[in-house]
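Consider the following assembly input.
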Amino acid sequence: MKNKDGMYYVPAQKKAAKVCAAGDFIFSAAGLDHGHIYGMVSGLINAGATLKYVYDPDPAKVAAFLKTFPTAVPASREAQVLDDKEAQLVASACVTSERCALGLKVMDSGKHYFADKAPLTTLEQLESAQKKVIATDKKYAVYYSERLHVESAVLAGMMIKDGVIGQVLQVIGLGPHRLNAPTRPAWFFEKEKYGGILCDIGSHQIEQYLYFAGEEDAQVVRSQIANYKNPAHPGLDDFGDAMLVGQNGTTNYFRVDWFTPDALRTWGDGRTMILGTDGYIEIRKYADIGTDGGADTVLLVNHETEKKMSAAGTVGFPFFGELILDCLNHTERAMTQAHAFKAAELCIKAQLQAVRIGPEIRDGGL
Amino acid sequence: MKNKDGMYYVPAQKKAAKVCAAGDFIFSAAGLDHGHIYGMVSGLINAGATLKYVYDPDPAKVAAFLKTFPTAVPASREAQVLDDKEAQLVASACVTSERCALGLKVMDSGKHYFADKAPLTTLEQLESAQKKVIATDKKYAVYYSERLHVESAVLAGMMIKDGVIGQVLQVIGLGPHRLNAPTRPAWFFEKEKYGGILCDIGSHQIEQYLYFAGEEDAQVVRSQIANYKNPAHPGLDDFGDAMLVGQNGTTNYFRVDWFTPDALRTWGDGRTMILGTDGYIEIRKYADIGTDGGADTVLLVNHETEKKMSAAGTVGFPFFGELILDCLNHTERAMTQAHAFKAAELCIKAQLQAVRIGPEIRDGGL
C-alpha cells in the first residue's frame, strides 16, 4: 500500500464492498438505549448484512429506529428476536450493565452477539461471557467505534502495520466528549449502569492501545477518576485517565472527559498519538481544530517525511465485512475474541482500581 | 488583554523592553557545557543586563561563546568570576550534577545564581541550595526554557490567567527531543551527571504543569523510564513519562523522549495541552506539523471560539526583565524561589520513583 516515498495510495476499494448477497447474513437489533446502534446497524448493512427484527421495550425508540431503517420488522417481545431461527447475529446497544445478560441469551439462542462498547461492566459478567463463548462457540463481538468506525484510525492502523513508524512504543489517547447533560437518559449518570468513565468511554482508548501497540495483555499501573464540575450528577465521572504497561514493554496513557466546550464544531477533539522507534503518527479524528479541515486527519512524521493526510473516503470500515465473514466462516479476521474481552477486562480493572481525585482532595490532602 | 469575543490583541509592547540602563545590572557566565547558556545570556542582555566575564575550563567553549558575545571578558579562573564585586548574578549551564555546587559558591560570593534546568540532580543538593538561599538572601533562579523562552507558552500562560478556559484541570506535556547521539558529550549519557530523563528534560514539563495549573505542590503518582533503542548508551533513558496530582486536585501527565525522527523540521514536536473547566488550549511550540506554519502556534477552544493563533513576535519573554528587576528590587515577579525549587524537587522524585519499563520486561513479566 505504501511506496518508498512514504506516499499512501488511495486503495482501489474505497469503501467496504458488500461481502455477501442479500439474505446470506441476517441479523436483528435489540436494545436501542445508546445511539451507537445506528452505527452498528448501518455498518453491517453497508457490508452486506440484512436487517430483520428490531426490538426495544420503548416504542418511541423503535419508531425512531424505523425512520432510519424502514425495512426492519418491529418485534413485540425480546423472545421473538431470540427465538428466530433465521438471524445469525443480534446487535445491541442496551444499557451497558445489561449488555452481558442479553448477550448470554443471544448466544444460548444459537446466534452471534454484537454489543456496543463497553460490552460489559463487571469482571463477573466477563467470566460468564467468556464461558458462554466457549460453551456455544458463538462470538461476543464489540463495537469499539472510535477505532473501527473512524477512517483515520483505520488508515493509521494500516500504516503502522506497514511499519512506517517502526516498532510502536507508546499510544496516547485523548477522548473528550460533549456532556449535553439535559439530553442524556437517567442511566447515563448511574455508575453501576454505565460502568464509570474508564469502563465506558475509556474502553475505546484501551482497545486502541492494544491494537496499535500489538499488545495482547497489559497492566493498569495507575488510573484516576474525578467529578470536577458536575455535583448535580454525583454518579458521573466527568474526568478519568490511566496509564498501562503492556506485556511487551509498550505503554499507554489516555484521558477521557466530558469537558468539550460549546464552540468546538463537533462532539469531541479525539486524538491519538502513536510513538514508534522510527516516527510517530497523530490522528485528529473528528476535527483539525483551528483549520477548515474536517474529520479524519492523519499526520505522519518519520525519517522520510513530515506530512498531513486526509483519510476521509479512503479506506472505509473493513471491520463490518470482516465480522460478517468471520461469522459465516468461523474465522477471526475482524477482531479476536481474546482482544475484545481483554480490552473489556482492562477497562473494568482501570475503573475498579481508580483513585478518586479532584477538588475534594483539598481537604484531605493527597 | 482579551475582548469579549475572545480575540487577543497583540500587546503594544511586542518584545521585552530593557528594564534597566547599561551597567545597572551586571552578570557573568560560568559553565558552558549546555548550549542553553546562549539563550540564558541573550535573554538577559536583551532585557538590559550587561555581560561581564565568561568562564569555562575548556578554552574552545569560551572561544565559541566569544563569537556570539564578543564583549564578554574571558576569565582565567572560576575564582575571578566569584571574587568579582561588580556582577550581581552568575549564569551557568555547567554539567547538571555540578550546577548546585557552583550555585552555592556563587551565592556565598554575594551574587544571585541563574542555573540552566535541571538546576540540580539530588534531594541533598536541593536541601543545601534551599539553606544557602536563606543564609545568603540570594536567588537560585532556573532557566526552564520550554516555558520561559517560548512565546506560545508565554501567551498561553497569559490567556489562562485571563480565564479563557476557566479553571485548569489538567496539563499534558509532550517533550520529544532529537538525540543526535554523535554530537553529544560523554556526560550526556551518564545518569549521575545529567540526572536521568525525568530530571533533565522532564523538569520543563513539571515546571509548566505547576505554572499553568497554579499548583504550589504535587505528588508524583507514577513515573516510568526506559531505554528502548539505545543499548550502546545504557545510562541513557530514551523514554520517560509520569503522572502527577496537585494539591488542589489538578493532574498532569507528561512524556519525554529522544525519538524525534529525522524528517521533522526541528528538534522536537513539543506540545502542551491544557484542559480547563470551560475550554482547552493546545500549544504547538516548535512546529505545526504537516503545515507551513512554524513555531509558536496556540490553539484555543472554549465556549465562544475555536481558533488557531500565532504567538510569534507578540508577547516576547518577560521572564528575563522580571528576573533582573527581582534581583534589583528584592521581589519575586519572574518566578518564586519556592516554585523553581518545587519543580526541581518533583522531577528528582519522579526520577527516583521511576519504574523501569521496556523490552527487557518481556522476560520478567510485568
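The longest strand of chain A covers residues 168-176. Ask yourself how this observation constrains the way the partners meet.
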